[in-house]
């Protein structure tokens, strides 16, 4: 499992989560909201992250968000 993060990007707290009153799980990447897990997906996430260490918890959150950045990167060039 340690070969999963070869570039050591998950050693920092890049992913965080917050559980809301209505049992939704909000996942954040570097403080920005990425996805919301509700219902069974939220329950499954909470069970998966329970008792995990820091690196393993970061990996679970990375897997839960999926490939959220693919195709969403903005080019900061001005369009003329």
Instruction: Please tell me what the overall shape is.
Output: globular
The secondary-structure element order is EEEHH
Structural class: alpha+beta
Q: Into which percentage range does the β-strand content fall?
A: 15-25%
Main sheet makeup: 3 strands, antiparallel
Instruction: Tell me roughly what share of residues is in helical segments.
Output: 25-40%
Low-confidence stretches: none
Average of the residue pLDDT scores: 80
State the distance separating the first and last CA atoms.
Answer: 47 Å
Radius of gyration: 14 Å
- Provide the domain count: 1
Order of the strands making up the biggest sheet: 1-2-3
How many individual helices? 2
What's the count of strands? 3
Observed structural traits:
3 strands, 80 residues, alpha+beta
What does this structure look like?
This protein has helices spanning about 40-50, 55-65; strands at about 15-20, 25-30, 30-35. The longest helix has 12 residues, at about 55-65. The model has no long low-confidence stretch (mean pLDDT about 80). The protein is globular, with a radius of gyration of 14 Å. With about 80 residues, it is α+β, with helices and mostly antiparallel strands. The protein contains 2 helices and 3 strands; from the N terminus they run βββαα. The protein has one domain (about 1-65). Helix content is about 30%, strand content about 20%. The protein has a 3-stranded antiparallel β-sheet with strand order 1-2-3.
